[in-house]
């Protein structure tokens, strides 16, 4: 359930003549536009908006925001409010401190989603940044093949390693999609990679073929999502609200910020206890193998404990990449 902690203290009903409740996935942008338009005109800074179908959860940047000046309802959806400190977004780019329990130094001759990656040859004394491989994609125009990785795991770009005992270099970072935590790596020609997840023999889960990249909004709240990697194994969750996250734009010719498409996914009570920073970059998909996005972070406390924040695959699709089948 959403964290309905704080409501408006006003009787302000915005766009009451427009009903954006229970919109189909293809139309949810219409709901977000109403929110963005009001807060931009009112000059009240917000950092995240969640659309739950019949309500909005809006994250205010300033704790001193006057709650008598924010809407009680927008487009017939009741508005609830959190402050940015309550979302518990972690600092990005933390150096992972792995233990022997989570480091898989096995050599995989065929790589796949969920394999551990490293920014250098792995050493217990100098672990570097451990993250997780995403999916194999190809450029729709050139046909060149790449893999998605977690951007913060490669702060200086450069080589990508499969951190087995021999420290095999598998590719090179060629692109970082700014502020989305997604980067693209070009694999070396002699590195085989398949879009089949690991099997989970302990619970009888067979490998899933990851078929297509789909937009984050293609799921409805309540749909089942899946994740599998060699750090925490196979897991299931429930897709939460359609979400837009505000990110700053460093291009002076563009607006000062933009909104990226994201989702919150509830992964189960106590799920955060098993998560490691190194899970960043793992693909999140639905039962037909379509990938909606990539694991970004999971708050360790607060209102979204046991939820995982997922960056939508939209930002790869927009750059003419598609899944390799």
Quaternary form: single chain
Question: In angstroms, what separates the terminal alpha carbons?
Answer: 36 Å
CATH architectural category of the largest domain? Beta Barrel
Helix content: under 10%
| Rg | 20 Å
Query: Which structural class matches the secondary elements?
Result: mainly beta
CATH topology of the largest domain: Thrombin, subunit H
- What is the class of the largest domain in the CATH system? Mainly Beta
Number of helices: 2
Q: What is the strand content? A: 25-35%
Average pLDDT level: 86
Helix and strand element order: EHEEEEEEEEEEEEEEEEEHE
Low-confidence stretches: 92-98
Shape: elongated
Domain count: the total is 2
Descriptive overview:
- The chain folds into two domains: 13-87, no CATH class; 92-324, Thrombin, subunit H (Beta Barrel).
- The chain has two helices and 19 strands.
- The chain is elongated.
- It has 325 residues and is mainly beta.
Structure characteristics:
325 residues, mainly beta, Thrombin, subunit H, 11-stranded mixed beta sheet, 6-stranded antiparallel beta sheet, elongated
What is the fold's blueprint, element by element?
Layout: E1 13-14, H1 28-42, E2 46-51, E3 55-60, E4 73-74, E5 77-83, E6 116-118, E7 130-132, E8 136-139, E9 145-150, E10 159-162, E11 168-177, E12 182-187, E13 224-229, E14 233-248, E15 257-266, E16 283-285, E17 291-297, E18 307-312, H2 314-317, E19 321-323
């Amino acid at each position: 359930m959403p964290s309905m902690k704080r409501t408006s203290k006003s009787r302000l009903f915005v766009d009451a003549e427009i009903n954006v409740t229970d919109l189909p996935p293809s139309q949810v942008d219409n709901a977000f536009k109403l929110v963005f338009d009001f807060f931009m005109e009112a000059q009240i800074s917000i950092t995240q908006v969640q659309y739950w179908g019949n309500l909005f959860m809006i994250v205010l940047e300033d704790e001193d925001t006057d709650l008598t000046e924010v809407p009680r309802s927008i487009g017939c959806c009741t508005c609830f409010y959190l402050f940015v400190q309550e979302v518990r977004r972690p600092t990005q780019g933390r150096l992972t401190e792995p233990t022997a329990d989570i480091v898989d130094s096995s050599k995989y001759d065929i790589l796949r989603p969920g394999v551990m990656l490293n920014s250098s040859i792995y050493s217990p004394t100098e672990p570097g940044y451990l993250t997780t491989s995403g999916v194999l994609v190809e450029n729709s125009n050139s046909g060149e093949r790449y893999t998605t990785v977690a951007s913060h795991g490669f702060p200086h770009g450069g080589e990508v390693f499969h951190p087995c005992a021999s420290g095999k270099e598998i590719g090179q970072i060629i692109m970082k999609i700014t502020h989305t935590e997604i980067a693209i790596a070009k694999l070396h020609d002699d590195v085989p990679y398949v879009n089949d997840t690991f099997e989970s023999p302990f619970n009888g889960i067979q490998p899933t073929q990851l078929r297509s990249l789909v937009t984050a909004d293609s799921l409805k709240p309540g749909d089942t999502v899946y994740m599998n990697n060699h750090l925490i194994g196979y897991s299931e969750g429930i897709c939460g609200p359609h979400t837009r996250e505000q990110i700053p734009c460093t291009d002076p010719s563009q607006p000062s910020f933009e909104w990226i498409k994201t989702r919150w996914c509830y992964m189960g009570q106590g799920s955060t206890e098993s998560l490691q920073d190194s899970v960043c970059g793992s693909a999140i998909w639905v039962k037909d193998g379509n990938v909606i996005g990539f694991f970004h972070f999971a708050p360790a406390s607060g209102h979204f404990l046991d939820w995982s924040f997922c960056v939508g695959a939209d930002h790869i699709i927009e750059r003419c990449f598609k899944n390799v089948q």
